[in-house]
Amino acid sequence: MAQIATIATLALAGASVYGQVQQQRQRKAEVRAQQEVAQQQQVAQQQVMATQTAEQQRARQEVMARTVAATRARLAASGISPDEGSASALTAGMAADSAQDQAESSNLLRQRLAAGRPSLLTSNGDFQGFVRATQSFGAISRNLLD
Predict the structure, then answer these.
(1) How far is 58 from 52, CA to CA, in rounded Å?
(2) Which pTM value belongs to this model?
C-alpha cells in the first residue's frame, strides 16, 4: 500500500511539474505577444513622429524661401543689390538660423526616438519560471523523502 502511495505521489508531482511547465509556456507566449504589440505600437509612433518632423521641415523650408525672396525683393526695390554687402549678410544669417533650427529639430527627433526604445535590462522571466518549477519539484521530493 505504501508503494502505491509513493507512486501516486510521484505521479502527482510529475503532473504538477508538467502543469507548471505548460503554464510557463503559456505565460511566455502571452509575454511575447504583448512585446510584439508594444513593438508595433512603438514603430507606428516613431513613423508618426518622423512624418511630423518631415512636414515641419518642409514647412520651415517653404517659409524660409518665401522670407528670403521677399527680403531680396524689398532690398532690390530699395535700390540695394541683394547679393552684396549687408543684404547678403542678412540673407546668409536667415539661412544660418534656419539651418540651426533644423539641426535642433533633428536632434530632438533623435532624442524622442531613443527615449521610446525599451530597456535591454527588462527581464523576460524565463529563468524565474525555471527556478519556480525547480523549487516546487524540490519541495515535492523532500515530502517524499520524509
Answers:
(1) 10
(2) 0.52
